[in-house]
C-alpha cells in the first residue's frame, strides 16, 4: 500500500511543555495515543530514504516525511511531552483525485464483471453451466405484456415473447421466420411435438408431430387446398360408413 505524507506545514512543530518550539528535538512516532500503541519505525524522509525517528529542524518545524506503508491517515508524534496527532497533509489532494476518478471504489469494474455473465456486452458469449437455468421470468396476468420484445428503430414491433407464453415471429423483409435444424435425429424421433396440455417432449397427449424423417402425424383433420374432403382408409375391411370421395386401401 502507499505511504502518506506528513509534516512540513506551519502547524507541524516540536514544542516543550510551555508551547515553545524546540529546534533539533528528537521525536518518536506511534500508531495510536494509548499506552498500548506500537511505535512506528518504518518511515522515510521526503526523498524516500529510511528514517527511524523524527528530528525537528533548526526552527523547530517537523520536516515532511512519509508514514508507514499501510496507508495510515493519522499518526502520533511524541517529543517528550506527550503524543500529538498528525494528519496526512495530502488528504485533500487524494480526496480531490478520489472525487474526479471514474471508478474510485472499483464498484463499476465489479458490477461490469458480475453482469457480464448475465447481460453480456456486444460480441461476447454467455456460458450457462449444465443444469442451471440461465434466465427465469415471472409473468403477470396481463396478456398484452411482453417478456421479450424486439423492435426496429422506428418503434415497429417485431419478434416478441408474450406474458401468455405465445411466441410471435415477425421478421424484417423476406426471411424464413422459423428454421428448425434436426441433425442426427432418427426417423422415429420427434422434432416438433404439440401436446394437448403443457409442452412436453413425450408422445403422450400429442395432437401434432413432425418426425425426424419428415413424417407429419396429426390426430385431427389436415386441411389443404389440394386435399378437398376426401378420407383415406386402410385395412382388411371397408369403412363402416363410407362417403363419396373416400379412398379405401385394402390389405390383409
Q: In words, what does this structure look like?
A:
The chain is mainly beta and 252 residues long. Among the domains are: 5-88, no CATH class; 134-179, no CATH class. It contains 2 helices and 17 strands. Strands 2, 3, 6, 8 and 9 form a 5-stranded antiparallel β-sheet that branches. Strand 11 (157-162) and strand 12 (167-168) form a beta hairpin. It is rod-shaped, with a radius of gyration of 41 Å. This is Phage tail protein.
Count of runs of 4 or more consecutive helical residues: 2
Q: Got a strand count?
A: 17
The protein's oligomeric status is single chain
The value of Rg in angstroms is 41 Å
Overall shape: it is rod-shaped
Q: What percent of residues are in strands?
A: 25-35%
Taking the sheet with the most strands, its summary is: 5 strands, antiparallel
Structural class: mainly beta
Specify the helix fraction band: under 10%
| End-to-end CA span | 92 Å
Low-confidence runs: none
| H/E element order | EEEEEEEEEHHEEEEEEEE
What is the residue-averaged pLDDT? 86
List keywords for this structure.
252 residues; mainly beta; five-stranded antiparallel β-sheet; 2 helices; 17 strands
Amino acid at each position: 500500500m502507499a505511504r502518506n505524507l506528513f509534516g512540513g506545514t506551519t502547524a507541524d512543530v516540536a514544542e516543550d511543555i510551555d508551547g515553545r518550539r524546540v529546534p533539533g528535538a528528537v521525536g518518536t512516532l506511534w500508531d495510536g495515543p494509548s499506552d498500548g500503541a506500537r511505535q512506528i519505525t518504518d518511515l522515510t524522509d521526503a526523498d524516500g530514504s529510511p528514517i527511524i525517528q523524527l528530528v525537528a529542524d533548526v526552527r523547530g518545524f517537523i520536516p515532511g516525511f512519509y508514514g508507514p506503508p499501510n496507508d495510515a491517515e493519522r499518526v502520533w508524534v511524541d517529543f517528550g511531552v506527550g503524543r500529538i496527532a498528525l494528519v496526512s497533509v495530502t488528504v485533500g489532494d487524494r480526496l480531490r483525485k478520489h472525487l474526479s476518478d471514474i471508478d474510485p471504489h472499483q464498484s463499476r469494474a465489479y458490477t461490469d464483471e458480475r453482469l457480464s455473465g448475465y447481460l453480456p456486452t456486444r460480441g461476447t458469449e454467455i456460458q450457462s453451466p449444465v443444469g442451471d437455468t440461465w434466465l427465469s421470468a415471472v409473468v403477470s396476468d396481463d396478456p398484452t405484456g411482453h417478456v421479450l420484445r424486439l423492435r426496429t428503430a422506428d418503434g415497429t414491433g417485431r419478434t416478441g415473447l408474450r406474458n401468455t407464453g405465445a411466441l410471435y415471429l415477425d421478421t424484417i423483409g423476406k426471411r424464413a421466420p422459423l428454421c428448425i435444424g434436426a441433425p442426427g435425429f432418427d426417423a422415429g424421433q420427434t422434432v416438433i411435438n404439440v401436446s394437448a396440455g403443457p409442452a412436453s417432449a413425450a408422445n403422450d397427449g400429442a395432437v401434432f408431430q413432425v418426425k425426424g424423417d419428415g413424417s407429419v402425424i396429426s390426430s385431427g383433420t389436415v386441411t389443404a387446398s389440394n386435399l378437398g374432403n376426401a378420407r383415406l382408409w386402410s385395412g382388411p375391411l371397408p369403412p363402416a360408413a363410407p362417403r363419396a370421395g373416400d379412398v379405401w386401401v385394402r390389405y390383409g
